[in-house]
Amino acid sequence: MSNIREIRNFIDGAYVDGAAPHFDDIDPATGELIGRVHAADRAQVDMAVQAAKRALTGPWGSMSVEQRSQLLVALADGVNKRFDEFLAAEIADTGKPKSLASHIDIPRGAENFKVFAEMLKAYPSEAFQQDTPDGKGAVNYSIRKPRGVIGVICPWNLPLLLMTWKVGPALACGNTVVVKPSEETPATAALLGEVMNDVGIPKGVYNVVHGFGPDAAGQFLTEHPDVDGITFTGETRTGEAIMSAAAQGVRPVSMELGGKNAGLIFADCDIEKAFEGTMRSVFANCGQVCLSTERLYVERSIFDQFVEGLADRARKLTPGDPYGDGTSLGPLISREHRDKVLSYYDKAKSEGADIICGGGIPEVPDGYGDGCWIEPTIWTGLSENAAPVREEIFGPCAHITPFDDEEEAVAMANDTQYGLATAIWTENLSRAHRVGSAVDVGITWVNSWFLRDLRTPFGGSGRSGIGREGGQHAFEFYSETRNICIKL
Ligand code: NAD
Question: 182: Cβ below 6 Å to ligand 1?
Answer without folding.
Answer: yes
